[in-house]
Amino acid sequence: MKTLAENPLLVLRWVLLLGMGVIFTALNSYFLAAGNIFALGDSFALLGLVALGLALTMLAGEFDLSGGAMVAVSGLIMLKCGADNAALGLVAALAFGALVGLFNGVVTLKLNVSSLVTTLGVMILLSGFAVWLEGGQAVSFANYDLTDAFNMDWFGVFSPRSVITIALFILTGLMLVFTRMGRDIIAAGSHRKAATMAGANVGGAIVTTFVLSGLFAALAGALLAITLGRASSTFGANLLLQAASAAILGGIALSGGVGRPFGVAVGVMVLAVLNNGLGLIGASSPAILLLNGAVLLIAVLAGGAPALWLKTRLRASES
């Protein structure tokens, strides 16, 4: 278990999260109301699943650009294939996500190309596929009972989507710590050649991260479509940038091998709280985007000299 001195960025993330909570509560008392906590959970569910999948690929030293487009496509598949049978639609959406993830991983490995190039091409293809599936008209969902079920609140503040997302964060964290595949994923991102020489299944680890990334993004899109009762080719348009911001803010290193799902969850909550709070106080969309970028910049810069200074001070206080 890392001490605060060994992980100063964790301190900064929590200070940022708690500080924003205090500020937004002071500016609008509704911020801590049960209804708003429920809305925060839904925001966490959507962004969290995409960010978790992206973070896994980053841990392995890769990057999946197709997550946002996958949200749109999977939502449309969910409603079109699940019009009469919701379970069939969900299976079809998840299977499509897994297959696209498998394609991303295999092409990246077998053709020895950058995952940025592979997933950029797939992102463009998925965006076009979403427009084709939509067909120029809104796609709606007539299973109102299921939509109502996913909009129910559990214990006053949790939604089924947020509970599913929290469970997946926990399971992913346990997988990384207690399974051979989890350790191989981290090893692949830490030092790929050394991991290969040590007998780690680097290829399998990389493909697994892309499959999970596709699955998580597809699940996010399918659950969003069920909850809203509709799907659109524009869903997920800004999710990729926010997911990358949440992962970096959560301590995932762009170089790979560093970071854990718990940190990503904190990063997602920081952005969810920021966007929700700014919306409550009437901030404009450009202002929200500007402050999102500022938070990410602060997090990146904090990993340099400020983090070193804080680390030194914390170690001094512990000694």
Automatic annotation (TrEMBL):
Swiss-Prot/TrEMBL keywords: Cell inner membrane, Cell membrane, Membrane, Transmembrane, Transmembrane helix, Transport
Membrane protein topology class: Multi-pass membrane protein
Major location (coarse): membrane
Transmembrane in keyword set: yes
Protein location: Cell membrane
Transmembrane parts of this sequence: 12-31, 37-56, 86-109, 116-134, 154-178, 199-229, 235-255, 262-281, 287-310
Record InterPro entries: ABC_transp_permease
PANTHER family: ABC TRANSPORTER PERMEASE PROTEIN YPHD-RELATED, ABC TRANSPORTER PERMEASE PROTEIN YPHD-RELATED-RELATED
Stated name of the protein: ABC transporter permease
Protein's organism: Thioclava kandeliae
Biological classification of the source: Bacteria, Pseudomonadati, Pseudomonadota, Alphaproteobacteria, Rhodobacterales
